[in-house]
Amino acid sequence: MTIVESTSSTTNKTLRFPLNAWYVAAWDREVVRKPLAVRVANQPLALYRTEDGEVVALADACWHRLAPLSMGKVVGKDGIQCPYHGIVYNSAGRCVSMPAQEVLNPSATVPSFPAVERYRFIWVWLGDPLLADPDKIPDMHQMDDPKWAGDGETIDLDCNYQLVLDNLMDLTHEEFIHTSSIGGKNISSSDFIVTHGANSVTLSRWMIDIEPVPFMRGQMNAKFPGFEGNVDRWQIIRYEFPSTICIDVGVAKTGTGAPEGDRSQGINGYVMNTISPSTDTTSRYFWAWMRNYLLDSQKLTTQIKDGIAGVFREDTAMLNAQQVAIDAMPSYEFYNLNIDAGGMWIRRLIERALEAEGAPWQPRT
Amino acid sequence: MAATNVEVWQHASVVAIDQVAIDIQRIVLEPQLPKRAEPGSHVDLKVVIDGEQDKRSYSIVESSDDGTRLTITVFKAPASRGGSVYMHGLAVGDRLEITQPLQNFPLRIGAKRYVLLAGGIGVTALVNMARTLKDARADYTLVYAGRSREAMAYLEPLREEHGENLVVHVDDEDTSLQVPALLAGLDVHTELYMCGPIRLMDAVRRQWTDSGLSYPNLRYETFGNSGWFDPEEFVVRIPRLGVEATIPTGRSMLEALESAGVDMMFDCRKGECGLCEVRVLELDGTIDHRDVFYSERQQNAATKMCCCVSRVIRTVPADGRERPAGHSLPVVTIDVS
Ligand code: FES
Ligand code: FES
Ligand SMILES: [Fe+2]
């Protein structure tokens, strides 16, 4: 009998994180002159801006005694001073002043990581700096494109980042978790199409001639006052390596040609999601809801943001509970359904990347 | 380039040895726990000197992508501390204890321009960096200075690999490196990485700040094994402890004092941290400061020395005459912490 070696992801409940990848460390507005402490992919970072506004990401531990640099203060054009014995580093992480002696120790450096400001976020690269090409940053252009408006928040989660990716790739859960807002009985019964590329996975679903869910009806009424009747609804979920998912969502008056490409009789939003692993079992989830209608309405921006924040709180509770269950019953496996196809493709792409980095997946102990 | 410098010890076998220049051997190791070596990294390995175990550091000249093969290069220094003699005695198939690659000399990606300056065997710390910069299509020059071509390892392969980006200075061809001329051409955005004899490194360090260049852009690595002068035997006395020891050319003062039972403090053992500092009470001779811890002013004051690397030699007569033969050994009287 031959035993076929299986590399299926079925047993991998949670995933480790590739390091040769861009992760969001913070919103652009959060990074100022005063240092900010964050943790990305298990790496504590001190983030700050130079006098010229450039973002700096240094390992958050002084070379000398590992005091957190984020507790220190910025000095000079681009430096940061350790709060403990006063060693000063420049933005490259090199010691420029060692108060207690006349000559600098040549080994005194702290790691400095590539950081890029884009799409209202600060992205960091913790792996091989030679591979840190900003073109590999996932496309989230709706975040700062003048044709789109909206805002979002950050959610701190007590779960592995892969569980969040699973959650976003599979919107059938909306029908059960988000019953009162964006759910609706048509989702789990409607068909979907999954495709994948080298770094992306796309899942599209159309629901034709259905009753709009409360949130979508509200949006239709904002754009088309007095609108009543059925809609065509779409959800086009696009994952991009390592952990960004942008969802093209919307509804249009049914029969007005939205599936064929004419969305003028509808409303269109983009749910922007990017998830950064903090540790093996915690993550930071940055999201925003962008729209391409009524761009000047700050009221609508706030209403949508507050509404969606409430929806996502329902996910948070589930994801945290799921991690607790995983940890409590380590010998229990995951089983997969057809609805998991999107999440399973992501798992495969991430596992390939981990293997290429020489870090095949290993069970947590 | 996370600076994780946890020493993970493992076995490695010697899989190839060949001569790459006079007294210089290339040694290929196959470690038990492969880990890819970043440019600038080194391994520590255990050597046996006069029956006693000791530790030496060697730069990694080349690493296979998966880290299963690490190449180091060893110069048999005429007056070495003894480690290189041991290393030159190795044969294919021998097993050694080595660390996984350690990093004290990281290359920063993203500088506008790079100069890599190698003096003699110091080239070993820069070969991998030069290759990385070439692959990254960076603007770089590898400057390689040595006494004679026969004594310079990897000259030909480096020329093939780096073409016009390699500049060679050879003492016995009268093309010696002129430090002021080298630094005159640099701007504040240039990063210089160097490894070589202490004379060269001191000259560059002193000239660097005078040239208005930014100090953090000067990167160097020292293994604490070269001085301004050839090592001589000398005597160290610690009156308070009633200790007197003679330091042979192949040992450091720190090692000799430890063997004499003195409880010594130290950390880096290569002249960087200053923890092994001793106070000089009396001096019959001249201190050959081999550290990079003291400033020039402090070294000239000659009241303290880093005993892990620095030595004492007989004072060279001011008129440059030959020293009388049979003259007694130089002596330094010190106190320790
Ligand atoms: S811990 Fe930072 S200077 Fe001492
Ligand atoms: S032990 Fe560090 S300078 Fe001597
Ligand atoms: Fe949800």
Features:
heterodimer; A: 365 residues; alpha+beta; Rieske Iron-sulfur Protein; Naphthalene 1,2-dioxygenase Alpha Subunit, Chain A, domain 1; 2 domains; 7-stranded antiparallel beta sheet; 4-stranded antiparallel beta sheet; 5 helices; globular; disordered N terminus; disordered C terminus; B: 337 residues; alpha/beta; Elongation Factor Tu (Ef-tu), domain 3; Rossmann fold; Ubiquitin-like (UB roll); 3 domains; 5-stranded antiparallel beta sheet; 5-stranded parallel beta sheet; 7 helices; 34% strand; binds FE2/S2 (inorganic) cluster; binds fe (ii) ion
Condensed summary:
The complex is a heterodimer of chains A (365) and B (337). By secondary structure, chain A is an alpha+beta fold.
Topology, pairings included?
The complex is a heterodimer of chains A (365) and B (337).
Chain A: E1 22-27, E2 36-40, E3 43-49, E4 55-59, E5 73-75, E6 79-81, E7 88-89, E8 95-97, E9 112-113, E10 115-118, E11 121-125, E12 149-157, H1 161-169, H2 174-177, E13 192-196, E14 200-210, H3 214-223, E15 231-240, E16 244-253, E17 266-279, E18 282-291, H4 298-328, H5 341-356
Antiparallel strand pairs in A: 1-11, 2-3, 3-4, 4-9, 5-6, 6-7, 7-8, 10-11, 12-18, 13-14, 14-15, 15-16, 16-17, 17-18
Helix pairs in contact in A: 1-5
Chain B: E1 9-21, E2 24-31, E3 41-49, E4 52-59, E5 62-63, E6 70-75, H1 83-88, E7 95-99, E8 102-103, E9 113-119, H2 127-135, E10 140-146, H3 155-162, E11 166-170, H4 179-184, E12 190-195, H5 198-210, E13 218-220, E14 234-238, E15 243-247, H6 253-259, E16 277-284, E17 286-288, H7 296-301, E18 304-306, E19 311-313, E20 331-335
Parallel strand pairs in B: 9-10, 9-12, 10-11, 12-13, 14-20
Antiparallel strand pairs in B: 1-2, 1-7, 2-6, 3-4, 3-8, 5-6, 14-15, 16-18, 16-20, 17-19
Bound molecules: FE2/S2 (inorganic) cluster (2 copies) and fe (ii) ion.
